[in-house]
Structure formats: C-alpha cells, structure tokens
C-alpha cells in the first residue's frame, strides 16, 4: 500500500496542500474548524501516527511569545537568550517581538495580532501590567507572565528583580562615597527611583529627577550635555541611571566636555550588561540583575501554567547586586555588594 501524502490529506479534508502544511507546522494560522477537519483527515489516511494527531488536536504546539520593549537593549537581549535556552530545553518554540518604550498603540496592535495567532503562552514587559488586552488573552486560555515589572494585584505571574533594592544599593554607595547632591536619570519614576530617593532623603541628601524620555545612549548624552552646562556649585556630583545605556551616554558626554569621572561626576548604571565593562570611557559601576536567569525562569513559569492553568500565580523576585567599578570610585578594585534592606 502506498504511503499517504499531504495531497491525500488535503483531498479528504477538502482543503489545499498549504492548509494541511500550516495545520502541522503553524496551527495558529488555521481556524479551529478547518484544523479539526484536517486532523480528522490525517487520522483517516494515516499520514502521521494517531498519537501525534491527538496532540495537535488539543493544541500542544507549545509556542511562546516573548515581548520586550527593545531588542537593542542588552538587558532584554540577555533575557531573550536565557528564554530561548529554556524553551529549547523544553521542546517549545519561542518567538521574539518588540514594542518600543512608551509606544502604547504599537503594543496594542501587537497584542491583538498575537491573540489571533493563538499562542500557548506569553511573556511580556507591558506598558501597563493591568492591560485589559492581557486579560483577554488569558480568558482565551493563553497564560501571561509579566517580565521585569511588579503586578500589584497578583492576578498574573511576574518575574523581576527587586528594583527598589537596586535603587537603595546605588544611592547608598554614592552616599558612602561622600556625595550629597544626587540625580536620577530615567524615563519613569519607578521602583529604582523610589529606592534611591528614599535612601538619599534619609541620609540628608537630595535626588534630582532628570527625565530622559527613553532608554537609549542618546538620552544619556542629552542628560550629560545638560549637566555640564550647570554651574559647578549647583550641579549634582553623582548620577544614578535607570540603565547602562543611559549611563554610557552620560559618561561620554561628560568626559567629552572635560569632566573627570568619578572625581567631578560619579556615575552608576543599572543591569550590569557587557556595556558596563566594555563600552564606556571608564568601567561602569552598575546594579547587576541576572538577565539570563530571569529569562529562563519566565519560560519555566509560563510552561507550568500552560500545563496547568489552575496553578497559583507566582511573583519571582531576584535580588540585585551592586558591582563597583571606576565610574563611582577612584579605587580600581571591582567588588560586589548585595546588602539587605535596612
């Protein structure tokens, strides 16, 4: 007896060869009614083992979407690397998407498109952790795990670093170096800012907000250019940046204008990406968060929820560490600090 082919399946199901191929390889592109008809035809002609057909029928494509703000941000690149490793180990497919910082409409379009694709799971750094579109996805049976954000309602799982503690560590270090006029350069007053300003205020220091609007090196250059234009008697003597990209840009602008780092201006970044030690005029002190492990953990959690939607939601929080380099202290020795809250 001749072996059954895709054409045989298509003839029995009354569809094209391409529809059969999509059902096998890209089931999210085929509507449910057609997919069921194709799967019945597959079983009828014996094109693939019945067990495999049954697995497709219940939708076990194990496809996971990873939505980040910027694939050009080294932190998210490292997260994606860890997520890809975990997905591959589990035999799942991972698709990477970018929304852009503050681009709400772009994110809405992407979420609606992903809803049509019927992903098995979604990991996302959303503009709004309580976005109704995320709830719509969950209602359709797609578990959602929030990345690098806290979910106060605990209605969905989250994987993140303790950003508040990261802010505490950065501000405490700068205060210990003798600074009292601090600044925070970032695009939102988040937990990193909260931890830093609380720590500075408690020590009798000040923390000036410097809005970057975005998270790129060019934003850091803009902040640095503004800082050097200020009178030296009033200028902050230390800056805590929301990420390493901003910190690198700030250091470049400050050194180009003739300021010495850290003698005239101390700088601390956040994420401790490769940029911190390789892409700046001086090695950058930075708050380390384990990006690769965060990506792995997010995939493991979403896989668990894909297997059992009744599982209790989790808030997995990693403790950051301060990695001290020459941008904040004249001492060349590198050291780590992971002080607990006090």
TrEMBL record:
GO molecular function terms noted in the UniProt entry: DNA binding
Limits of the HTH lacI-type domain: 4-58
Key words of the record: DNA-binding, Transcription, Transcription regulation
Matches recorded under CDD domains: HTH_LacI (cd01392), PBP1_LacI_sugar_binding-like (cd06267)
The keyword DNA-binding belongs to this UniProt entry's keyword annotation: yes
Pfam families: LacI, Peripla_BP_3
Keyword Nucleotide-binding: no
Highest taxon above the source species: Bacteria
PANTHER family in alphabetical order: HTH-TYPE TRANSCRIPTIONAL REGULATOR GALS, LACI-RELATED TRANSCRIPTIONAL REPRESSOR
Name listed for the protein in its UniProt record: LacI family DNA-binding transcriptional regulator
